[in-house]
Amino acid sequence: MHQMIKWTAVGTIDDIPRQGARCVKAGDTKVAVFRTADDRIFALEDRCPHKNGPLSQGIVHAGRVTCPLHNWVISLETGRAEGADEGQTNSYPVKIEDQTIYVALGAI
Amino acid sequence: MQHSLQTPRERLVVVGNGMAGIRTLEDLLAKAPGRYDITVFGAEPHPNYNRIMLSPVLAGEKTFDQIVLNGLDWYEANGITLLTGDRVESIDRVQRTVTAMSGRAVAYDKLLIATGSNPFVIPVPGATLPGVVGFRDLADVDAMLEAAARGGRAVVIGGGLLGLEAANGLKVKGMDVTVVHLMDTLMERQLDRSAGTLLQRELERRGIAVLTGADTAEIVGDGRVTGVRLKDGQVLPADLVVMAVGIRPNLALGKAAGLACGRGIQVDDAMVTSDPAILAVGECVEHRGQTYGLVAPLFEMARVAADRLAGGTEAAYTGSVTSTKLKVTGVDVFSAGDFSGGKDCEDITFRDAARGVYKRVVLKGNRILGAVLYGDTRDGGWYFQMLKDGQDVAAIRDTLVFGQGYQGGGAASPGAALAALPDSAEICGCNGVCKGTIVTAITEKGLTSLDEVRAHTKASASCGSCTGQVEQLLALTLGDGYQAQTGPKPMCKCTDRTHDEARRAIAMLELKSIPDVMQALEWTTPDGCASCRPALNYYLMCAWPGEYKDDSRSRFVNERMHANIQKDGTYSVVPRMWGGLTTSAELRAIADVVDKFAIPTVKVTGGQRIDLFGVKKEDLPAVWADLNAAGMVSGHAYAKGLRTVKTCVGSEWCRFGTQDSTALGVKLERLTWGSWTPHKVKLAVSGCPRNCAEATIKDLGVVCVDSGYELHVGGNGGMHVRACDLLVKVDTEEEVLEYTGAFMQLYREEARYLERTAPWLERVGLAYLKQRLVDDPKGRTSLNARFLFSQSFSQDDPWAERASGATDRHEFSLLAEVG
Ligand code: SRM
Ligand SMILES: Cc1cc2nc3c(=O)[nH]c(=O)nc-3n(C[C@H](O)[C@H](O)[C@H](O)COP(=O)(O)OP(=O)(O)OC[C@H]3O[C@@H](n4cnc5c(N)ncnc54)[C@H](O)[C@@H]3O)c2cc1C
Ligand code: SF4
Ligand code: FES
pTM of this prediction? Predict the structure, then answer.
């Protein structure tokens, strides 16, 4: 079937602290929406590729998040584990209009 | 249509006598002089002036006459009818006329709208009180100068370009100025956090107070402004309030005339609006979804509009990349392009703490995407040009960040700059050591290591921020003979500095924030990583009690949430049970919480208290509120801080007890709870040498004996079991308390982050602890005093703060729930 992007407004930039994240619940999936020190916004599934750690709870630094459970470092851009670790979590396209954050949560 | 017989000239009407409109006319007159009969309406009662120079006018560096771009004679010489002080109120697109406030109507064949923008006024009560001004035109500047002449206090709302230029001008004019900024760092749209923080420090140094993260709730005053109330309740007294929170394109006229509008009046690449007879330029337009607030793009628009008005069909405006400079004399700030980085971007960062310089260039695929410069903006134009040209910088990548002057012919290396310095150049600012002194010491005394240079010259022996340069001098002088030191390891990959160097610099240079430390010590990453940020946060908190604001974003999740994360993402909650004592009321409250929130597991811990496992994150505040209601507070089971004070029953009940070990344990826990330490700290008190509280494997353990109290330190029952060393024996409880405070503080001030007391003691030696704590009673007393001072700021229950919703409310709720 033809798939198309559906943008969902999830809140504004100011709802998320810098170097922090907050979650969006979309059905059974939890999506972590991150805001970096320089105000970039990224969305990843809130599940570490290692053992499903909640990435939203990690320390955010230089476009990455360090998982709170066993310190894997995950790229916010790609959802891929960095360094020697291997694995990737789902990432979602994000767009900002005015201050509102839209996430493409999935195909419909 | 009417045409005059001799000169059938088309009529051009310009609405807006500002920078974009008049620039368009200048370009048009150059291309097609005499083509139009031109009439200009200007709402302001002045000829066209250089708006961006209003800041120097406010600061007293320029007069109004000096910033006039085109005087009345220019309009006259070009046959332009100028109607100042007359605002155009409507456009009749069918009749093709505009009508102004005065009732005057003028017909057009072509209309150019250049109405600029309006300052945005935040919709809070009191926003229209007399004494509240924007910063947009000469009238605003006059109002500010008038207020400044009376002295008093000014509050500037908005820490962007305009707000800061206003603040600086008012300060120069003698007012007490406070800048109130909603975001955490100044000029956040143009500057990254590092540069924003440097800027803030500089303004503060000039006596301008800066409040970040401050949201305005109300402008207060009775008939005239008297202050600004913030959302946190604080009221800032003010005689003048400048609102500089942003601008909104002035599209009212276009909108009322039915032109297509978004955030601005929409134009195509020819600067033509949805009506082919009407063009628009400047801040009032929206082009390809963008609006602009700087002159460079407006001038590009003006060129295109002029070409089209002159009959051209080619010229097209395709959007602009912009760069910004702050016009505050002596503060050099430059920003261009997109410096936020992103996929496949590389950051090149350069920090020269001695000169107060910070540079960051963002590259993508060998092309410059953005740049932020602070302190030295000489190369701003160079980077900006390469950015706009999309120039491939692969060949100069390694030296790019050093600037244009550095791109000599041959292969330059960072060391070359140092080699080129004269002998008299100062390397170590703290101890005033010049390059020549260091090089001479290296050659004449045969020095081969950093430590030797430190010992002989004192260079790099204080704050350590010149360590890199001293090492380079060693390398330059000794050539291949120099082997970089393999001493204590750097904190992490973000820096070459060791933990001790960072701490020393924090104290010596009075660094008071994480970005300050990163700047002073030339961090190589923009905002550190998960290892250095928590460490720096701790060092700063320890160094500046009461002053440093904890950075929760630099804390591991458990310390941020004040609960321990579990493998399934739920949390565990451990209330404090002072000295292991509890009551039926506490136990009942715990039982009730367990039932109410269906908490799956309840366990007695190895630390003599009760752990509730599997609490959902969103339930935490309510669980805490219920426990608080029964008088219980956070057990800090998550903290690099005081965990537990384990006790035995002691002389109250036990037939062997020599002292009241339980009560002493409670006193020790009351003394030490809430403290932040390099790693966790556990205490214990046993009532006799049978030692049922296992006091001799604790960080500090007290073993009571008939004649007093033995204090044991540096024990650990964890991964590497280590029995304590006996520090001292004392006679009274008071002494136990003083020694404990002093020991805690020495550990806090001198151990490295994540170093527990056992490895710390092994590193520095028991003799050292005895020297500091036992042999030096004065030193002990002052250590204890510093501990108590620090404790006066840290003994607030973090649960209560969060349960009340006052702190970190966003942590406990979803951003959104969809689908
Ligand atoms: C709950 C508890 C086990 C229990 O069910 O009894 C426990 C649980 C954890 N311990 Fe422990 N330790 C507990 C008593 C101990 C003890 C015994 C004691 O305190 O008397 C020790 C050995 C004594 C000591 O520390 O010297 C102990 C040595 C450790 C260590 C090793 C520390 C070391 O320096 O070697 C770690 C790892 C660490 O901290 O890096 C650790 C780490 C942990 C962590 C925090 C692991 C983690 O990072 O998630 C566990 C958190 C559980 C949670 O979510 O609450 N736990 N842990 C005990 C809580 C005590 C309390 O009331 O606060
Ligand atoms: C204090 C200050 C400092 C600045 N510093 C810089 C800087 O350093 N660098 C930079 O690039 N930019 C700076 N700017 C921004 C720059 O000045 C603007 O981008 C530029 O002036 C916009 O030009 P414009 O023609 O669109 O609007 P304006 O210059 O504002 O001109 C619009 C004119 O139209 C008039 N008008 C509006 N409606 C009507 C109407 N209905 N009828 C008749 N007339 C009307 C207005 O009164 C105004 O005179 C600064 C701005 C200010 C206020
Ligand atoms: S010993 Fe401590 S860290 Fe290990 S499983 Fe038990 S509670 Fe967890
Ligand atoms: S679950 Fe993320 S590192 Fe283990």
Answer: 0.66
